[in-house]
Amino acid sequence: MTDTHTRRGLSIRGAQRRYVKETAALAGADLDLEPGKITALLGPSGSGKSTLLRAIAGLERLDGGEIRLGDTVWAGPGRHLAPERRRVGMVFQDYALFPHLDALANVAFGLKGPDAKTIAMAQLEAAELGHKAKAFPHELSGGEQQRVALARALAPAPAIVLLDEPFSGLDRRLRQELRERTVDTLRRAGATALMVTHDADEAMAVADALALMDQGRVIQTGTPEHVWTHPHSVTAARLLGDIEVIEAFIKAGAADTPLGPVATPDFKNGCTVYVLVRPQAIRLTMAADGPFTVTRRRSAGTHLAFTIENAEGRSFTTHTPVPSTLAVGDRVDVALDEAFVTVVGA
Ligand SMILES: Nc1ncnc2c1ncn2[C@@H]1O[C@H](COP(=O)(O)OP(=O)(O)OP(=O)(O)O)[C@@H](O)[C@H]1O
After folding, report:
1. What's the predicted TM-score (pTM) here?
2. From the CA of 51, how far away is ligand 1's center (Å)?
3. Buried b vs exposed e over 201-214: b needs ≥16 C-beta within 10 Å?
4. Where is the ABC transporter domain (predicted)?
5. Looking at CB atoms within 10 Å, which of 92, 105, 162, 173 has the fewest?
C-alpha cells in the first residue's frame, strides 16, 4: 500500500472557522503534517481539534486560511475541494460503521472497481479479522469494530488518515493493546496520520510529532520529547502533564525560586518569569537542616510521589524513582535537574 500513498505533506495556514459570531473555533491555526508520520493533536475540550479534523476532511468550510496537500489546494480563498476528492480516511470516536453491512462490506464501502472486495479482504486480514468478514457490527466487540473502522479508513490508500479519539470508550488494557496495533498498522501502511486525543500519555506514546492546540490555534509543535521538556508556555506545559509553575524574579542572571536559583540566560535581570518544573526535576536528599519537610509519601507504580513543604508553607510534588528510604517528617535538601525545567516569559 505504501507505493500508492501520496508522499506529500499536508500544510495548514491561518485556518479560520467561526460557527457563531462571538467565538472562533479555529482562529488562525497553522499545522504541517509530515508524510508517513503520526501526529497527535492534543488540547483542552473546545480548543478546535474536531473542527480542524473536519476542515481537513472537507466536512467544514474554512472562513479564512488555506489547506493544501503538496501543491494541491484543498481549501482556500474561493476554493473548497469536495470531501470525496481529498482522499482522506477517517476513524471516528464511535467508529461509525454501517450497521446493515457486514465487516467486509464496511471495509469495501469506499472502494470502486472489480478489485474492491479483494482489497477490502486484504485489509481485514491485515487487521487479523479475516474470519469476521461476514459479521455485522453488532456481532463484533468494541475493539474489533475499531479495527474494522481503521481497515475501512486505510483501504482506499488515503493521502491522510484522521483519527478522532479512536480509543475512547475502551477499557485501559484494551485501549493500550489497540493503540499499539493501530500505530503498527498506520506505520506499515506508511500513512500520514493526525490523531486527536485528550490523553497526554497516549499522545506521547503514539506520536512522531505532537501538535498542541488551545483556543483555535496550534500553540506548539515538535517531537514528544522536545515539547515535553521545552514547552513554550504554561498552557503547553500543562497540556502534557503535571507541572509546578513558579513565578519568579530574575536577579544576577538567575530566577530566584524556593527550589533554588535557575539560570535564565534568555531573560534580563529584573524580569518576572514563570519557571516550569516537572515533578521529575526535583531531587531530594535527606538533610537534618534541609529547607523542606516531607509531608506525604505515595506510591505511583513506577515512581514515588513525595509532597514537600518549606517553612513558608510552599509545597511541591516530586516524582522519585523507587526505592527510596525517605519518609513523612524527614527533612530534605532539593536540587533541580535542569533537563526538566523550562523558563518562559510571564
Ligand atoms: N456545529 C457547531 N455549531 C456551533 N459551535 C460549534 C459547532 N461545533 C463546534 N462548535 C464550537 O467550536 C469550538 C471548538 O469545538 P471542537 O469540537 O472543534 O473542539 P474540540 O477541541 O474537538 O473539543 P472536544 O475535545 O470537547 O471534542 C467549541 O467552542 C464548540 O462549542
Report:
1. 0.87
2. 6
3. ebbbebbebbbbbb
4. 10-240
5. 173
22 close to ligand 1 (CB < 6 Angstrom): no
Pocket test of ligand 1: the residue of 16, 17, 19, 235 to mutate, having most ligand atoms within 8 Å of its CB, is 19
* All cell numbers assigned to 338: 535542569
What 3-state DSSP class applies to 38?
Answer: strand
What are 101's three cell numbers? Answer: 453491512
Give me the interface pTM, i.e. the ipTM. Answer: 0.97
Dump the DSSP string for 124-185.
Answer: HHHTT-GGGTT--GGGS-HHHHHHHHHHHHHTT--SEEEEESTTTTS-HHHHHHHHHHHHHH
CA angle (86, 92, 95) in 5-degree steps: 120
pLDDT at residue 7, rounded to an integer: 67
Residue in 51, 54, 92 to alter for ligand 1 test, most ligand atoms within 8 A of Cβ: 51
Lowest model confidence (mean pLDDT) among 171-175, 268-272, 325-329:
171-175
**Cα 71 from Cα 323, distance rounded (Å):** 55
Q: What mean pLDDT is predicted for residues 258-287? A: 92
Q: Using one digit for the tens of pLDDT, what is the confidence trace for 184-237?
A: 888 988 889 999 998 898 898 889 999 999 999 999 999 999 999 889 999 999
Asked if residue 50 has its Cβ within 6 Å of ligand 1, the reply is yes
The grid coordinates of residue 262 equal: 535557575
Bridge-based pairing of strands 38-42 and 193-197 is parallel
Nearest Cα to Cα of residue 11 among 212, 256, 192, 171 = 192
